[in-house]
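Progress against Task 2.4 (sequence-to-structure conversion) is shown through the following example record, which the project officer requested during the mid-term review.
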Amino acid sequence: MSQAVGSLKRRIETVLEDFKRARTTWHEISTDGFSTANALVNATIQSRYVDEPGYWHPALLQEFPNVVHAYHKKMQWIIHQHHDKLTSISQKMRKQYDKMRQQFMEIQAISKRLVDLQGEEYVQTVPLYKTCPMIVYVNRMEAIVSMYTNAMGTVDMLLGEKGMLNVKSREEGLTLLSTWMNHPSINDSVINEFEDLLKVEIYEKAA
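Structure tokens generated for the chain above:
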């Protein structure tokens, strides 16, 4: 029995390390994608010049009657390129998010296995390593995965028709870019508390 529990504990440690790696990679991909998001917002705003008669000098329009149409066509192509690139970036973020979900489901499965081996009270009250029972790890991971679920929903919104493709002003663009950069649904303090807990419970060896 104790050998089975020890094996599960080692597996938990591996899953938690993978969970941190997926989160770190998710944020690295998001940060790398900011320049593309910025380019998309700027291109969308610039495309609005087509609708501003004052932007086009009458002499230019007289000399080149198709200039507005050509400009519009060019800007739509640029927007499409940036949007495709940012969509690809978001798909890479989703792959990391999917890993987080799978890792959480494995932790849930391990928790159920511990119930089978040791009983419900063990999972709820008995320290798994030093002070925290298994249920603490399950609940903390669930809360963190929920944050990234909401963050991916926000990313989808930013890439949708009502997001960066529909920016009408620089102020609105800055708001959307700030949302991409900061991911307001992700509470860093909650994640840091979980990392501190793991450090104390698992990674710091007793003297």
